[in-house]
UniProtKB/TrEMBL annotation:
This is Signal peptidase I. The keyword Hydrolase applies. GO terms for cellular component: membrane. The chain crosses the membrane at residues 28-45, 97-119. GO terms for biological process: signal peptide processing.
Length: 322
């Protein structure tokens, strides 16, 4: 068992190392699931096989020591030399290293697995597509049950939950490459007609209300952008526009239901198909979103983003957001 366990741990370490170095495309959900299964198997084996075996051996040592003392006492010998029986017993009961690194870690791993898979999952914002709502480096939490619980790895929904609504900030699997997680704002739900023409958002023929605000200064790019307060459904948030960027959508890819979209020099108009959502970043002219790669199917939904739990460069950003 020690050799087998060493091989299993080496395989996990090798996969993690290859992922970190970029040799393989990692899947943390799958890695965590396998770690839960493997450590769980060791935990069951420890509880019902290995620990009872060690207890029998330890009790056997104690019984033998007691029998020896009884025999010597019958011969009038009361001072008995030899190893401390209790210390020997405790050493025999201790988990060997290969169980300590498997069965011993199972309670922690299964707790992380349950929390991450069914309750809340942490993410780090890697790009500026959601500025000013979310900044690069924000550490956020995503609610995994609001839109319905999903099976880990398979992402198959097992409860209905509440459907995404316009204005929600949602994490989803990037349709062209589902191994990547993206975060954008829901601007269109199934059946909506979304128009983004001349940098104005319209939903079902109704312009989305917005009010101009003072310009936003991006410290990373050292540039000012026009800033607006926008309201979509019950959500109020801020969006940015870059006057130097054109209104038309350059380089739109082929994607399922592209025939539902009409592109022009003014922008794009799309009819959202059933079971799909239209996503846009709040940094409107610096966001690779549904305007470029299409609709997000329901099966790609990960969860609803709702809280910044840490930003090491600005602790004042901690809190909820819309």
């Amino acid at each position: 068992m020690p050799i087998l366990t060493a091989a299993v741990l080496a395989a996990f370490a090798g996969y993690a190392g290859a992922w970190y170095l970029g040799f393989v495309e990692g899947n943390f959900a799958l890695l965590l699931f396998l770690a839960t299964v493997v450590t769980g198997a060791y935990w069951v084996a420890e509880r019902f096989w290995f620990l009872p075996q060690r207890r029998r051996v330890a009790e056997g040592v104690a019984v033998q020591a007691q029998e020896r003392r009884t025999q010597l006492a019958a011969q009038g010998i009361t001072q008995v030399d030899g190893p401390d029986v209790e210390q020997t017993r405790q050493k025999l009961l201790m988990q060997p290293w290969w169980l300590d690194w498997t069965a011993g870690l199972f309670p922690v791993i299964v707790a992380v697995f349950v929390l991450r898979s069914f309750l809340f999952e942490p993410f780090k914002i890697p790009s500026g597509s959601m500025i000013p709502t979310l900044l690069v480096g924000d550490l956020i939490l995503v609610n995994k049950f609001t839109y319905g619980l999903r099976l880990p790895v398979l992402n198959t929904r097992i409860t209905d939950g509440t459907p995404p609504t316009r204005g929600d900030v949602m994490v989803f699997r990037y349709p062209p490459k589902p191994s990547l997680d993206y975060i954008k704002r829901v601007v269109g739900v199934p059946g909506d007609e979304i128009a983004y023409l001349n940098k104005r958002l319209t939903v079902n023929g109704q312009p989305v209300p917005r009010q101009p605000m003072s310009d936003f200064f991006d410290e990373d790019s050292m540039r000012y952008s026009r800033q607006f307060a926008e309201s979509l459904g019950s959500k109020s948030y801020r969006v940015l526009n870059d006057d130097d960027r054109p209104a038309f959508i350059p380089g739109a890819e082929d994607f399922p239901y592209k025939e539902n979209c009409r592109y022009s020099v003014e922008g794009v108009v799309c009819k959202v198909p059933p079971g799909h959502y239209f996503m846009m970043g709040d940094n409107r002219d610096n966001s690779l979103d549904s305007r470029f790669w299409g609709f997000v199917p329901d099966r790609n939904i990960v969860g609803k983003a709702f809280l910044i739990w840490m930003n090491f460069g600005d602790l004042g950003r901690i809190g909820s957001f819309e």
